[in-house]
Amino acid sequence: MFRSLAGCVDYVFAVAGSTWLTQTFWETEDDIANAESSALYQEVVGEILAAGILGDEQTTEVLEVTAYAPPQG
């Protein structure tokens, strides 16, 4: 889903015990806002929430990337 959204550079999914992390990388903050308001994103998030696999506490942080080396290949 993320790769189909404009401005998505890359993403990482990680888990440690009951903690899940989705880290995404975007060209601009506008791309983040557009993605979050897109029908596709809303549909996928809605399905995840309905499945009950996320806990009660969910947080979002926007950070500026100061260095990035894309995967080779």
Task: Kindly describe this structure.
It is a single chain. With 73 residues, the protein is of the alpha+beta class. The chain has a domain at 2-51. Helix content is 30%, strand content 23%. It has two helices and two strands; from the N terminus they run E-E-H-H. It has helices spanning 29-37, 39-51; strands at 8-16, 19-26. It has a two-stranded antiparallel sheet. A hairpin with a 2-residue loop joins strand 1 (8-16) and strand 2 (19-26). The two termini are 21 Å apart.
Topology:
Blueprint: E1 8-16, E2 19-26, H1 29-37, H2 39-51
Antiparallel strand pairs: 1-2
Write a short abstract of this structure.
With 73 residues, this protein is an alpha+beta fold. The chain has 2 helices and 2 strands, in the order ββαα. It has a domain of 50 residues.
Helix/strand structural class: alpha+beta
Mean pLDDT across the residues is 89
Using only C-alpha atoms, the radius of gyration works out to: 13 Å
How would you describe the shape?
Answer: globular
Helix content: 25-40%
N/C terminus separation: 21 Å
